[in-house]
């Protein structure tokens, strides 16, 4: 029953993202004629501000309560950004197509920020109320024992925590100060911990022979701009994973005292290579399942790159 809880949380987050993402709506429409109604998902990302009741420790606790298990971690020094990734318990021996996407959780190192930026971040993150961890754990235990009502109640608590900010909007001056120091941090200050991207598992789509062909499809058939930072293709066979992404489409967001234009999210694509050439990969564990920090460093810049940068 915990799988049902995880599935409900992920599907709700995915549908919300899918509905709100102009990029994803265009990709969906172009995939349908190819026979792909539900593209396989690789991972999604949730970034939080660091604070007394926010950040990686809280996010990891929430997902651990639903049956996600830590798999690894990395660091993006230019962005003062720590990240961890988690996968479903027992997924190694499941079919890759049956496993829910991994979740990447991240926050920032306060002690590496200048004093004026640290003051702004602490001012807003301190507004966040504690996450209802005890309730989530209790309801997860009830869900694991077969309580369907607990599945619904627990999912509602988790989704409520993951779908926005727990702090007020910053001022335009604060936003620009933070953005000048760290554009990713400024994005999180505005949008909060809502999933900033979902990632499609292109290697599990039989209609594409490789990621380069999928990039051609995105560029020529869907007519979406691609992130060129570090090259359109980040990684390759020797890395175990190749990645690419769209650049964000800007939205006007009203802050505390005015408006700014900032992309709301993007779509990522990955091609995971088999870890062994001995047999055709079928199981989740047959593929490289980790992340490469230097690739993630460039991909996440899609959150604030506009198409004219590409």
Which terms summarize this structure?
2,3-Dihydroxybiphenyl 1,2-Dioxygenase, domain 1; eight-stranded mixed β-sheet; 10 strands; 10 helices; single chain; two-stranded antiparallel ribbon; globular; 310 residues; alpha+beta
How would you summarize the topology of this molecule?
Blueprint: H1 2-20, H2 22-31, E1 41-47, H3 56-65, E2 68-76, E3 81-88, E4 102-108, H4 115-125, H5 133-144, H6 148-162, H7 172-181, H8 183-191, E5 197-201, H9 211-221, E6 234-236, E7 241-245, E8 250-254, E9 259-263, E10 266-272, H10 293-299
Parallel strand pairs: 1-4, 5-10
Antiparallel strand pairs: 1-5, 2-3, 3-4, 6-7, 7-10, 8-9
Description:
This protein is α+β, with helices and mostly antiparallel strands. 37% of the residues lie in helices and 20% in strands. The protein has one domain: Roll (2,3-Dihydroxybiphenyl 1,2-Dioxygenase, domain 1). Strands 2-3-4-1-5-10-7-6 form an eight-stranded mixed sheet, with helices on both faces. β2 and β3 form a beta hairpin. The radius of gyration is 19 Å and the shape is globular.
Q: Give the CA-based shape.
A: globular
Mean pLDDT across residues:
94
Q: Given the helix and strand composition, which structural class is it?
A: alpha+beta
N→C terminal distance: 44 Å
CATH topology: 2,3-Dihydroxybiphenyl 1,2-Dioxygenase, domain 1
What Rg do the Cα atoms give? 19 Å
Q: Total strand count, please? A: 10
Strands of the widest sheet, in order across it, are 2-3-4-1-5-10-7-6
CATH class: Alpha Beta
Unreliable runs? none
The run of helices and strands is: HHEHEEEHHHHHEHEEEEEH
Kindly report the oligomeric state of this protein: single chain
The percent of residues in helical segments reads 25-40%
CATH level-two architecture: Roll
């Amino acid at each position: 029953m915990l799988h049902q809880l995880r599935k409900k949380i992920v599907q709700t987050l995915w549908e919300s993202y899918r509905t709100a993402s102009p990029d994803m709506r265009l990709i969906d429409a172009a995939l349908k004629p190819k026979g792909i109604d539900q593209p396989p998902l690789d991972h999604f990302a949730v970034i939080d501000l660091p604070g007394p009741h926010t950040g990686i420790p809280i996010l990891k606790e929430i997902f651990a309560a639903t049956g996600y298990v830590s798999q690894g971690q990395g660091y993006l020094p230019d962005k003062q950004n720590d990240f961890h990734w988690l996968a479903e318990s027992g997924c190694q021996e499941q079919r890759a197509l049956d496993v829910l996407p991994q979740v990447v959780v991240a926050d920032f190192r306060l002690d590496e920020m200048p004093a004026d930026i640290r003051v702004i971040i602490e001012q807003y993150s301190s507004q966040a109320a504690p996450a209802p961890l005890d309730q989530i754990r209790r309801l997860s235990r009830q869900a694991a024992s077969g309580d369907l009502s607990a599945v619904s109640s627990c999912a509602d608590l988790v989704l409520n925590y993951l779908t926005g900010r727990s702090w007020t909007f910053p001022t335009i001056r604060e936003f620009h100060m933070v953005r000048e120091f760290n554009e990713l941090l400024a994005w999180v200050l505005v949008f909060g911990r809502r999933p900033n991207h979902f990632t499609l598992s292109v290697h599990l789509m039989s209609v594409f022979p490789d990621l380069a062909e999928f990039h051609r499809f995105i560029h020529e058939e869907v007519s979406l701009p691609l992130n060129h930072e570090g090259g359109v293709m980040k990684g390759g066979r020797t890395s175990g994973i190749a990645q690419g992404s769209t650049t964000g489409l800007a939205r006007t967001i009203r802050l505390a005292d005015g408006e700014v234009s900032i992309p709301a999210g993007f779509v990522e694509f990955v091609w995971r290579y088999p870890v062994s050439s001995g047999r055709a990969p079928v199981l989740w564990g047959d593929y490289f399942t980790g992340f490469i920090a230097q690739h993630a460093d460039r991909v996440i810049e899609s959150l604030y790159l506009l198409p004219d940068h590409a």
